[in-house]
Amino acid sequence: AQKITQTQPGMFVQEKEAVTLDCTYDTSDQSYGLFWYKQPSSGEMIFLIYQGSYDEQNATEGRYSLNFQKARKSANLVISASQLGDSAMYFCAMREPDYGGSQGNLIFGKGTKLSVKP
Amino acid sequence: DAGVTQSPTHLIKTRGQQVTLRCSPKSGHDTVSWYQQALGQGPQFIFQYYEEEERQRGNFPDRFSGHQFPNYSSELNVNALLLGDSALYLCASSLERAQETQYFGPGTRLLVL
Fold first, then answer.
1. Closest CA to A52 of A78, A30, A37
2. What pLDDT digit, counting tens, does each position of A62-77 carry?
3. pLDDT, averaged in runs of 10, over chain A (118 residues)
4. Which CA distances in Å does A75 have to A45, B48, B100?
5. How many CB pairs under 8 A join A and B?
6. Which of A18, A31, A35, A74 could form a disulfide with A93 if both were Cys (CB 3.0 to 4.6 A apart)?
7. Would you call A108 and B105 a contact, using CB atoms and an 8 Å cutoff?
8. Whole-angstrom distance, CA of residue B54 vs CA of residue B49
C-alpha cells in the first residue's frame, strides 16, 4: 500500500508568489515524522523541514512552512515568496517510528516538479 | 563541518558485473542508510547500518549487500548487475540517539549497459 501520495506531478508558480505542494500519508503508527526534501537537477536531496506527529505547532523554516492536518493525514509544504532557485523536484517523506533509538527508514512519495517562472 | 560524501560520482558498468559504492557520513553521525532512486521516482530504501550491522532492509534482493566500518563509513555492493539497477544511489546519515533527520550525500549515478 502506498504510504506517501503526491498528486501533483508538476506545478508552476510565478516568482515572488506563494505555492502549496500537496502530500497525504497513510500510517497506523502513532509516532511518525514527516519530511520535505528538495532535489535540484544535481541530484542531492536537501532537507527542508520536519514535522513530528506529536508536534502541535506547524513547522516553519524560513520561507518554508508545513501545513500539518493530522486528522486528514496531510502534510502540505508551503513556499512563500518563490524564487527562481526554488525550481526543483520536491519530495515528501515519512519516517515510522520516529523516536530516537529505533528510527525507521524514510518512505518517499513520487515527487512534484516545481517550476518558478520569472 | 563536512557533509555526507559519496564516491564515485558516476559509474558505468555492464550486465553481470559487480560494483562497490562508498559513503562517508556527516561528522558525528553513526547511522548510514542507502537508497535507490530510479529515473522519475522517489528514493527507495535499500538498507540501514548501525554499529557495523544491517539493522533494517527494504525489498531488495540479496545481490545488494553492504558494510559499515568502525569509522561509520559504509559501502554498498551490488553483484550480477542488471539493466534495471541503473539509478541514482543515495547515502544518508543520521544520529541514532537523536530525533534528527537524515542528511543525504550527492549520490552516485550508476549506468548499467
1. A30
2. 999 999 999 999 999 9
3. 88 97 93 93 92 92 96 97 97 78 78 97
4. 18, 25, 18
5. 63
6. A35
7. no
8. 5
Q: What is the C-alpha separation between A20 and B49, in angstroms, rounded?
A: 35
Helix, strand, coil distribution of chain A in percent, nearest 5 = 5, 50, 50
Question: Quick one: closest CA in A to B97, which residue?
Answer: A100
Find the chain A residues whose C-beta atoms sit closer than 8 A to any C-beta of B.
4, 33, 35, 37, 42-47, 50, 52, 91, 93, 98-101, 103-111
Question: Residue A66 and residue A59: Cα distance in Å, rounded?
Answer: 5
pLDDT (tens digit per residue) in A35-50: 999 999 988 999 999 9
List the Cα angle A48/A53/A56 in 5-degree steps: 90
